[in-house]
Structure formats: C-alpha cells, structure tokens
Amino acid sequence: MHDLAEGLAHFQQDVFPAKAELFARLATDHRPRTLFIGCSDARVVPELITQREPGELFVIRTAGNLVPAHPGAAAGADGVCASIEYAVAVLGVADIVVCGHSACGAMTALAEGRDLAELPAVARWLRHAAPAADAARREPRALIRANVAAQLANLATHPAVARALGAGVLTLHGWVYDIPTGAVERVEPAALAA
C-alpha cells in the first residue's frame, strides 16, 4: 500500500498539475471514441499500450477479456452488459477493441484443462470462452486468438452493438497483444472458424 500512496502523491504533485487543463475539460466532457475490452491481467494496460490520454478510452477489464453474450430481457443486472450498452448507446463510441494477450492465465487454464473445482466463480466465468476452447483444440496461442474472435461474436449479440453495427456507426476490432515484444496481432471475427 505504501507504493500506491507514493504513486498517488507523485500524481497529485507532478502529473495532475502538468495536465490540469485536460482534467478541467474532462470534469464536464466525457466523449471517448473507443471502448477497449481487455483482460484484468496487470501486465496489460490499455492506456499504455495505445498511448491514450485520460478520457480517450472507455475501458472494461475482465478475466480472459470475456464478453458474455447478451442474456436477453429476462436476465438480471450485469456490469459488463451495462457498460457495453452505455458506451455504445450513450457515449456513442465508434470503435470497440477486444484485446487478448500472450500468457493469459484464463486461456492457459482452459487450454491445459486445469481443475477449477476450488474456483467455482472462475470456472463459471470461463464458460464464456467455451466456443473458443472448442475451436482451438486446447493449444494456448490458438485459444487466445479464437477467444478474441468469440468475444467479438458475443459483442454482436448485444442490442446496442447490433443496432450501431447495422447503422454503420460502429466497428469491431480484435487484437492479441504479445507481452514480451509489444507486438499486436489483429484478429477478425471469422478467425473462430479457422
């Protein structure tokens, strides 16, 4: 916690004053153009990878960069669905990026068929990657790519996304970020069938 407190002090004393004008504008103006859906993994920092300033990305981070298919009208509250709906229908983002990454713990667990009996919530969550696991035949690199494609397909089931895609005002992008090299491979939704 001491490191976090030191970082906060540095932000308040040095970083914030240098960007005071930006933060003053952001206090009343929130218009990100991109929804970035990435993994919760601490090694994958959307703003760092894309070199974006505060306010430029609307970010959702989930284990395995998973996006559940839209559950329909009868389903209960879901933070991922609500964030997607808000980003598309209210903020009017023009692009959505789903970003997987190398050495993903969630995808590695699936690829290796790890016993997740002691992690029941994780096991239930990873079911959202089942189509990718089936398509990739449990090879981790292929699974990471197939998972990004599967999550792009899941995004298209969300009504706000489907409407924006149909109106031609939204584009979906799939990326796989390689941690040791910084390279980014693009993935098309059709890659699921490959």
Question: What labels describe this entry?
Answer:
single chain, 194 residues, alpha/beta, 5-stranded mixed β-sheet, 9 helices, 44% helix
Describe this structure as you would to a colleague.
- There is one protein chain.
- The protein has 194 residues and is of the alpha/beta class.
- It is built from 9 helices and 5 strands.
- 44% of the residues lie in helices and 15% in strands.
- It has helices spanning 2-18, 20-26, 46-50, 79-90, 105-111, 120-126, 130-136, 140-155, 159-166, and strands at residues 34-39, 57-62, 95-101, 171-177, 184-187.
- It has a 5-stranded mixed beta sheet with strand order 2-1-3-4-5, covered by helices on one side.
Task: Explain briefly what this protein structure is.
This protein has 9 helices and 5 strands, in the order ααβαβαβαααααββ.
